[in-house]
Every structure is written in structure tokens, then in C-alpha cells.
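Protein: Arf-GAP with coiled-coil, ANK repeat and PH domain-containing protein
Species: Megalops atlanticus
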Amino acid sequence: MKVMVDFEECLKDSPRFRAAIEEVEGDVGELEIKLDKLVKLCIGMLDAGKVYNTANKQFVNGIRELAQQSTKDEVIESSLTKFAESLQEMINYHTILFDQAQRSIRSQLQTFVKEDLRKFKDAKKQFDKVSEEKEAALVKNAQAPRNKQHEVEEATNILTATRKCFRHIALDYVLQINVLQSKRRFEILRSMLSFMYAHLTFFHQGYDLFSELQPLMNELGGQLDQLVVDAAKEKRDMEQKHSTIQQKAALQDFSNDDTKLEYNVDTDNGIAMEGYLFKRASNAFKTWNRRWFSIQNNQLVYQKKFKDNPTVVVEDLRLCTVKQCEDIERRFCFEVVSPTKSCMMQADSEKLRQAWIKAVQSSIATAFREKGEDAQKLDRKSSTSTGSLDSGGEPKERSLKGESALQRVQAIPGNACCCDCGQADPRWASINLGITLCIECSGIHRSLGVHFSKVRSLTLDTWEPELLKLMCELGNGVINQIYEARREELGARKPQPGDSRQEIEAYIRAKYVDKRFVRKPSPAEQRSKFMALTKQERRLSSSSEHLPPRPPPPTPKLRPASNASAAAGGEEARRDSLFCPDELDSLFSYFDTSSKLRSIRSADSGIQNSADGSREMLASTPSNNSLSEADLPEPPVPLSLPRRDSPVFTEPREYSPGLQLYWASCARSLPDMAEALAHGADVNWVNTEDDNRTPLIQAVQGGSLVTCEFLLQNAANVNQQDIRGRGPLHHATILGHTGQVCLFLKRGASQNAVDVDNKSPLSIAVDAANADIVTLLRLAKMNEEMREAEGAYGQPGQYSSNSHTEMQYRKCMQEFISLQLEEP
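Structure follows.
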């Protein structure tokens, strides 16, 4: 160690010592100034960093809000969410960097200045004081007279004591100087090195973070190029559409016919007509207000704003009449009169008034016709497979929306709170998991991807009955017993309402993606579970033996719909068909309108018109209402139907989650199916020991439509075939499960697939004389042909498959599904 001041020179108190002391004191004073400045600059940097972090956090929150606002665009939402998470991590890294600067620069150097330099100053004060005392003692000793012995002795004693004190204090001062000069080197270097290492860590963390983000950024870069191209194409299409509509409006303005621009028809939503009308108020002033009117579900309603609940003017159009009003001052007025009140309205033109009057009259006629059809179908409602084609009047509501679905789902124990954070009154659900979620957790679930969780609103979305039944079969309690089985054992904390999004998201990913809290069963537990499922399947199979048997396919006992005495006479009549002759005429009248379209195609390609042929083929299907025993075809070759009453259970060579899912599907046990999926079961697992059947085929065998829906919501392949080439649709047709047939058609099952016997589902249904399934398959096939024809030839208007009749067809399929859900 280099000594700045020599201890020997300190004892001599030589000029070299005094010069060294002055040099050191000047250097220490300058060092103090520089360190004070550096500490103040560090404080300013830290304050600026806090302001930067605060502004950066606000910016990241703005990105999150933009992502939440873009929930309809999954790409933007997921990308912005990921970017916000990465930027938030960078903010956290900045905070760590500033904390390190606080410790290394501000705290360490400030401590050095306040403690070590203060000790140096105190030592300097004592040294200066004793130096002055020494000089005074030397002067006094020199001035003592020789003849005054007592003064000489006194001066000598004072000088001796002062020199001893000076030497002691001077040596301490020199030691303090040398220690300070040595300490300043490592204090400054240690502080700055710590600060630089903090920067090194910061940039390494940032580099690692963005290295993980780079593949996503590269992918988005490629998508961005495509988005630019698509945006340009959409812009051209919009400009072309704008020009077309502008020309159409100009032609209508030229012909003075703007009627079609003033109202709209939306058949899919049951709206016969809608548009703006002036309505005369019933107050004393008889004021006129412009309102948006619509005719829907055989009711006349209006609303002021889109978010307002519609106000019903006429409850039932069958009880009202419509007429023109020429006895008032305003033009183009007409009146809708009901037994309790009347409503005076005004159109914008005479053509528009006539269009509204015609629409009201047509809706009145439709209401009477549909109510009459309801009365004819009352005697067939007791059948377990009876459906309804009506779409007006008082239909039995099959699809639930809003508070109805919310109340039914939240009534399940445990569903009144969010499954993941416990927030009360959740309004969202994961339909493939069967749980309820709060809005924050639903956003996190949506970011996981649909292969993990499919999120749907309990109040904003429409709920099909099969989905609602699925939610009621599972619930938060069942799922948490599976996905949180080891949470307490692992000491994991479950999030609470109000926790940060990062904590909740980390927990949800650990729960559903990593499945960290799922308990892996032992081989003994797997065997016990397997035996319990097989026993449950045997019990379900044996209970099905007591159901009324189906008639054999070759000679089914059919009865006409009007012949009630045949049933009373003791014949074992087959269940009524969904379709009566009038309804078939109604359905085929829709397909027969395609004759013009078919003629166009036949003119181009030489293909003959097949509408009549399709109708004749469907009419040849055995039906309760249209065929007698004399009309029956020859007895078909019996099908090799699967035996539900004698399933074969063998001890498996190896237990696996896929095997558990397989037998749970047959046993209709949704909790066991959910547990198998949590354990990693493949939803399309193939049982090579049982004709390559899948869990979905086993669910068909089990007869539960909800089980099929659960598998389909979890990405089961609706067209996967067994070793005989039969898919789920084949098996549902063989077993006569009409509701499952409708469900598979609804989910895109191919009805053109054939098995090893070259049998399609349609040919199987024809051989089995199942009129309802034959009718549904053929109507679905013709509907598909019509859609292909429309796509090829672009025929608009009355040939569109989005017609009222197709709506009836879809509704009858949903009715079959609902009726099977009601069966015990």
C-alpha cells in the first residue's frame, strides 16, 4: 500500500510533512465536492427514472386497455397482451436497475462522504489546534529569561507536554489520512462496479426477454404484410360496393322508388319487416315521434335506440287488423287496431305504406297458419322423439340467452363464484371445461387459446340446450376437485379478487396449461376407477333393457296420424314421425323453388332436374303418416347392430387416461371424462382392442347426447372411423339416436362416408325404416346441394338457403336434440 504521508516526517514535523499535509487536505476537499455532486446527480437520475417508470406503466396500461377493447380480433388482442406483458417486464427490470443504483451509488458513496470524510475533518481540527499550541509553547520557551529559573522550568515543562500531545495527534492524523486514501480507491470502484453489473444484468434480461418474443414478432411481421395486402383488397371491394350501392340508390332516386331503402327483412332472426315510421303518441297533444318498427315473432314492436328494450305494440297479430287512414291531415298513414288499443303510424311514401300494410297482413296470416299447425301437433307431443317446426306464436324456447342461462348455470353448487379467483356473480363461462369465470379470468382464459378454454358470455351469447346441460353436469366444484387436487399439498396460493393480473394469469396457466395441481392416480386407483366405470356401464345397459323395444326393421307397425283407433286397438305402434305430410310439402316447396336454378345448371352441363326425384325418394321413405303396410319395401338385410345389452369387458393390458376417457364416455360420466382429459388423455384416442373405436363412438353407444357434446367441445373428430369404417354418425343412425344424428350433422359430420359394407348413414337409416333420420339426412343433403348451387350460380332472392323454411329445418333439428336431452 502506498503511504501518502510518512510517519517519520510526522515526528520531525518537517516542511515536507507540512507540504504533504496541505496537498492531502486539498485533494480530500476536492474529492468531497466531486462525491457530493455525483450523489446529487444520482438522486436526480433516480427521480427521473421513477417518473419514466410511472409514465411507462401508464403507457402499458393503455396497451392493455386497447387489447381488451379488441377482444373481437384475437390476433390483435393476444399480440397486444403479449407486448404489454413484455414491456411490463422491462419496467420491472428498470425498477431493479434503479434500486441497484440507489444502493451502489447513492447509499455507499453518501455513507463514505458522511462517515469517512467527517472523521478526516474532525482529525484535521484537532491537528490544527495542537499545532498552534505547539508553536505557542516553542515561542514561550524561547522567550523565557535566563535569570528566572522558575519561568524556564515552567516553559520547558509546557513545551515537553505539548510536543508529546502533538506527536500523538499528528500520528493519528497521518493514520487517518493514509486510511482514507486507501479506502477511497475501493469504495469508489466497488460502487461503480456494482452499478455497471446492474446495467449488465438489465441488458441481459432485456435481450433474453425479446429473444423469446422475436419469433412472435417475426410471425406478426409476416401476418402484417398479408394484412396490408388484405386491407388493400378490402378497400377495393368496399369502393366497388360503395359504387354499386350508389348507382343503385341513384337509379331508385331516378325512378322515385326508395321503398326498399327504407325497410329491411331479416328472415334468420325472424324479422318479417323493419324500418322507420312516425308514431302518433297517445297523450293529449297527439305528438308524432319517429321510431324504429319491426315485425318479429308475430308481434309488432318499436324502439327508440338500439340498446332500448323493444316496446310491444301488438302482442298477437292474430287479434289485430290493419287499415289505411285517409281522414287525418297527415299523408301515408295507416292504423293497426287490436281489441285493447290502436296505433296510428305514418310512412314516408305511399309505396312504403303499402309495403307495411302488406307485411302486417302477411304476418297475420302466418300467425294463424302456424297456430293452426301447433294445434295439429299437440297429439304428438307425448312421443320422446317428436319435434316442432313452428317458429311463431308461443314456441317452446329451446335456446336460452341472458338471465335464463345465467340463473341456471349459477344455480349449480360452486358456480356462484369465479372458478379461479372466487369473484362473486361471474358472467362468463368456459364451455369445454364447464366452469364459470369473472371477466378478468375470462380474458386470461381466452389468451390461452381455444385448445385449452373456449370462453362464452352467460348473458350476451345464445346458449343451446346441449351446452347448458353440459354446464350443469360439470361446474366449478367438480373441475376444481380435479385441477386443484394437489394445490394445498404444494402450498400454492389461490388468487383472490383484486390480485394483480400477473398473479392470476400465472396461477391459471399453472392450473390448466401446466396442470401442476392435478393428482396423478396410482395403478391401483386406475384399476378401481376402471372397474367402477365398467359397473356403471353395465347398470346403464341393463336398465335400457326395460325400455319399450323397437319394432324389427323388416316389418315395422306404422299408423297414420289420423288413425287414433289403431293405437287404441293394442298395436305396438312405432313412435310418430316428426314430419307430417303438410310439413313435408312445406319443406319441399322450398326445395322445389330451385327448379329454375336447376334448369340453369342443366342448360349449362346437361344434368337433369333432380328436385322431383329427390322428393320422390324422400316420399318413398317409411313414415307413420304417409305409408301403409302395403307400401312398405321388401324386408332389408338385417344390419349387424352393436349389442348394448352384452358389452364385453376385458382386463386391459395397460391403464391409461385414454382408456379412462373411453369407458367414462360409454358410462356417461362427465366428471371422469374431465379427469381423464386433465391427466392428458387424447380426446381422439383409439382402442385397438375394441375395433379402433374412439371415445366419441363410445359416447354414442352410451346414448348420452351431452357426453357427445362434451367431447366435441374438446376437439373430438366427428368423422373419425372405427375398424369397420363407421364414424359416430353411422353408429348414431344404427342405434336410432335421432338427437345425436342432428348434433353430428350440426357439427359438420360427413353423411357421404361409407363403411366397409359400402353403407352410408342414409342407406342404413333406409334399411332400418327410420323415417325421421332418413328425412333429416336427405333434407340436409338437399340443403347442402342448394348451397353449392347458389355458390356456383349466385342466385339471390327466393332461392337463398337463408329462408324461413331452412330456419324451420334447423329448428326441428334443435328440437330433436332438446327432446333427447329430456329423456331420462
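Remarks: Residues 661 and 673 are 5 Å apart (CA to CA).
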